Automatic annotation (TrEMBL), chain A:
NCBIfam families: PPR. This is Pentatricopeptide repeat-containing protein. It comes from Clitoria ternatea (Butterfly pea). The keyword Membrane does not apply. It holds the Pfam family PPR_1. Residues 1-63 are annotated as: Disordered.
TrEMBL record, chain B:
Pfam families: SWIB. The lineage of its organism: Eukaryota, Viridiplantae, Streptophyta, Embryophyta, Tracheophyta. PANTHER family: SWI/SNF-RELATED MATRIX-ASSOCIATED ACTIN-DEPENDENT REGULATOR OF CHROMATIN SUBFAMILY D. Residues 19-97 form the DM2 domain. This is DM2 domain-containing protein. Transmembrane segments: none annotated.
Length: 455, 100
């Protein structure tokens, strides 16, 4: 590292100032089986050429260009990686692209041995202040330096715009770059499709995919279809999902585990256990090996449609296949038991789960509190609420409401107020939601008392 | 689930939410208690409840009952004792529905 004026040393060692760059995707947390499959792992071929992601420098404190230049002049290190870090650091706080580009120009002037390459511009792109004009500006300066954009450039530009919520601009820039310079790959297409699905109508998304296919030859792949199916399933439009599956077959793709899991989830969310089982059987027929997510989905779906016995059987099948049930599996099962009104069995399952070394999460406790209150086992519910409180876990809307209601019904209003305080204090719910529940419960209590229904 | 539900609650019943969080000009008795000239019904409840907690006004034998001190009496109809269960209703009385 170069010579750094003492006044800036604190900035280097302060871990709070580290800002992970958007260029380097953070390692994804292990796939939560409730969030459905996302197979895409964004790949950046340019990654190896860019500076070390572990140490993004936060050297610059002000977005002022002149200050940055002064600091740069006091440095002697001309290692390109170090200069890239500097650029990254400045671009991340700089307010305009003009400043960032001017700073890059200043770097090249100060260190003639340093020649910007594609990754240099990628740094600028990923730190652009999220508007299409600044992306254009960066791309223009890249072109005038004689560097043509490649797939990675397209990908970064699209991701930067999408992360700012400007999906339409991202589509525009993608088309521009594809028609002028080079094609994008399916990763970029999929990323954009996923973002489009969130905020645009299905017909827009289809039109976009068709256009990409017809004009630029970027064909949707299995992941694209999975994203689409997931999207229509979330919209409870299963007919469209099945149509997509036939399209998938026509295009010559063989549905994989993820596609099946997604469809199964669609059915399970609608409590259609039998259809989910059908998908599962079809999957086995086709010789696709079910994975942990498949079993979790199926157990969730069966529990939801009240078929706990079958769900339990599946738990055994799962074990035979060598998959260890996790907290999601157990919580789904507990949910099913609670729905049946057998909260004590759910509590028994909790100890079984803990005995197997699987630790419950806040969702598990929420399910139990909810179920126990419903089965009028208030003491036990309060006990689990205590566990949640000591673990700092958040209450969910349903379990909060049932707990408050159960406490009020037993004439333990003070405790209900305490739960209210905890819900507000732990930011489980908004103040408004928590208070509305409390208020309406107390109103209901008054009525119930008048009719002699509550204590 | 929460945001969705909240959204639904708001779109279903915007008035209900509004009269919970809208700032209201307070009558003089309440103004003295909260120390502000405007407050929402939610804010008012929160400040009364936290006043009860900080001054330990809950009856030690029966936590569901609040023994009012002079200041609290002035805003809760002058009752010497109120039940916690009726607190929201009592506070609501200071926030009459606006005539259309």
């Amino acid at each position: 590292m170069g010579k750094i004026p003492p006044s800036f040393r604190s900035a280097l060692t302060n871990p709070n100032l580290r800002k992970p760059s958007s260029l380097f995707p953070q390692p994804k947390p292990p796939n939560n089986p409730h969030n459905f499959p996302e197979k895409k792992s964004p790949k950046f071929p340019g990654k190896s050429r860019t500076p070390n992601p572990q140490q993004p420098l936060s050297l610059f404190k002000s977005p002022n260009l002149e200050d940055a230049k002064t600091i740069l002049n006091s440095l002697t290190n001309n290692d390109p990686r170090f200069l890239h870090s500097l650029l990254q650091s400045f671009a991340s706080i700089s307010s305009t692209t003009t400043d960032s580009i001017a700073f890059l120009r200043h770097i090249t002037k100060t260190f003639p041995s340093f020649s910007p390459d594609r990754s240099t511009y990628h740094i600028l792109l990923s730190n652009s202040p999220n508007s299409i004009s600044s992306i254009h500006q960066t791309l223009n300066s890249m072109l005038s330096a004689g560097i043509t954009p490649d797939k990675v450039t397209v990908d970064i530009a699209v991701r930067t715009l999408c992360s700012a919520g400007q999906v339409d601009d991202a589509v525009q820039i993608l088309k521009e770059l594809c028609s002028k310079h080079c094609c994008c790959d399916t990763n970029t297409l999929n990323f954009l499709v996923k973002n489009l699905c969130k905020c645009r109508s299905l017909s827009t998304v289809y039109a976009f995919i068709d256009e990409m296919k017809a004009e630029f030859g970027v064909k949707p792949d299995l992941v694209t279809y999975t994203i689409l199916i997931d999207n229509v399933c979330n919209g409870k439009n299963l007919r469209e999902a099945l149509r997509l599956v036939t399209v998938l077959h026509e295009e010559g793709f063989k549905p994989d585990c993820f596609v099946y899991n997604t469809i199964m989830k669609g059915y399970c969310v609608l409590s259609k256990g039998s259809e989910a089982i059908e998908v599962y059987n079809k999957m086995k027929e086709e010789g696709v090996e079910p994975d942990l997510v498949t079993y979790n989905t199926l157990i969730f779906g069966l529990s939801k449609s009240g078929r706990v016995v079958e769900a339990k059987k599946l738990l055994r099948v799962m074990g035979e296949k060598g998959y260890f049930p996790d907290e999601v599996t157990y919580t789904s099962l507990m949910n099913g038991m609670c729905r049946k009104g057998d909260a004590l069995a759910a509590v028994a399952l909790l100890s079984e789960m803990e005995a197997k070394g699987c630790s419950p999460n806040s969702c598990t406790y929420n399910t139990l509190v909810h179920g126990l209150c419903k089965s009028r086992l208030l003491e036990k519910a309060v006990e689990f609420y205590g566990v949640m409180k000591s673990g700092g876990m958040k209450l969910e809307t349903a379990s909060y409401a049932t707990l408050v209601r159960a406490l009020c019904r037993d004439g333990r209003v003070a405790e209900a107020y305490e739960v209210f305080d905890y819900a507000v204090g732990s930011k489980s719910l908004t103040d408004v939601a928590a208070y509305s529940t409390l208020e309406s419960t107390l109103k209901w209590l008054k009525k119930a008392k008048e009719q002699g229904l509550a204590v | 689930m929460l945001p969705q539900r909240m959204k639904k609650a708001i779109t279903d019943n915007p008035k209900k939410l509004a009269n919970l969080i809208d700032l209201v000009n307070l009558p003089s008795t309440l103004r003295e208690f909260v120390g502000q000239s405007q407050i929402s019904r939610l804010g008012c409840f929160m400040s009364v409840w936290s006043y009860i907690k900080t001054n330990n006004l809950q009856d030690p034998n029966n936590k569901n009952v609040v023994n009012c001190d002079e200041k609290l009496k002035s805003i809760l109809l002058g009752k010497p004792q109120v039940e916690l269960a009726e607190l929201p209703a009592l506070i609501k009385m200071h926030f009459p529905k606006e005539p259309k």
